[in-house]
Design brief:
By secondary structure, the chain is of the alpha/beta class. It has seven helices and seven strands. The mean pLDDT is 97. The structure holds ligand 0WE.
Length: 256
């Protein structure tokens, strides 16, 4: 008996086996969910097919650049055809141009601001709007955030502003979709060793900082994000919506 037996879900944001999206997808699958996956660009197609292919013949794998309304529409048309309906959606997608994550926030360009908010925040609204009509029995939408949404993390820059928008959008979507029994929540994860974190200057020091200063004195395992993802998707969270859950070894409570 899985906690998500018979549930149908879609996962945005798998790039490779280290992806947070993959950790949560594995946990959803283990608990009995049938999943669809999207990948961003041909570059990631083989990766996602190799990973998601292990879930069996009913797994759906589709291309989706979340900055394209046409591609989003195609994805949900295919999901409607194959699954008929939907219960779960995971948004684990973010992008800011590399130069915006390196320099001084003051120099954030209009274009870097636009693209980071489009890909990392607006996409949640666009996906929720297409998913909602398929969530006829209610549903759970989960998005990934980071502490840089609320406090300044050097170099996180415009991504922090985009995550603040994502978290606020989560609250407004929770209010909009609540009457349809669709819940919308964020998981704010501690720093994870993913493709998105690779090449970020001082990332190793950041992991050490969490080990030294978080209440639990350690970093977060991908499988722990999986368990929280299952909780938010399950009836255990039936009255939880519009929230940001910190899965960060308790780091967020600290003032010093
Ligand atoms: O949300 C993120 C990272 C998302 C991300 C990563 C990249 C790297 C490659 C978005 N856009 C890009 N664009 C690229 O060109 N995190 C929570 C991980 C992260 O990123 C940081 C962090 C942490 C933690 C950037 C600066 C400082 C800390």
């Amino acid at each position: 008996m899985g906690l998500l037996d018979g549930k149908l879900g879609i996962v945005f944001g798998v790039a490779n086996k280290r992806s947070i999206a993959w950790a949560i997808a594995q946990a959803w699958h283990r608990e009995g969910a049938t999943l669809a996956f999207t990948y961003q660009g041909e570059r990631l197609k083989d990766n996602v097919e190799e990973l998601a292919g292990t879930f069996g013949a009913d797994t759906l794998i589709l291309p989706c650049d979340v900055s394209s309304d046409d591609q989003i529409r195609s994805v949900f048309t295919a999901v409607k055809e194959k699954f008929g309906r939907l219960d779960l959606l995971l948004h684990a997608v973010a992008f800011a141009p590399k130069e915006a994550l390196e320099g001084d926030f003051l120099n954030t360009s209009r274009e870097a601001f636009r693209v980071s908010h489009d890909v990392s925040a607006y996409s949640l609204i666009a996906l929720a709007r297409e998913a909602a009509p398929l969530m006829d029995l209610g549903g759970s939408i989960v998005a990934m955030s980071y502490y840089g949404a609320e406090k300044v993390i050097p170099h996180y820059n415009v991504m922090g502003v985009a995550k603040a928008s994502l978290e606020s959008s989560t609250r407004y979507l929770a209010y909009s979709l609540g009457p349809k029994k669709i819940r919308v929540n964020c998981i704010s994860a501690g720093p994870m060793n993913t493709l998105a974190a690779r090449g970020i200057a001082g990332f190793t020091d950041m992991l050490k900082h969490y080990e030294a200063h978080s209440p639990l004195k350690r970093n977060v395992e991908p499988s722990e994000l999986g368990h929280t993802g299952v909780f938010l998707a399950s009836d255990g969270a039936a009255a939880i919506t519009g929230q940001v859950l910190y899965v960060d070894s308790g780091y967020q409570i600290m003032g010093m």
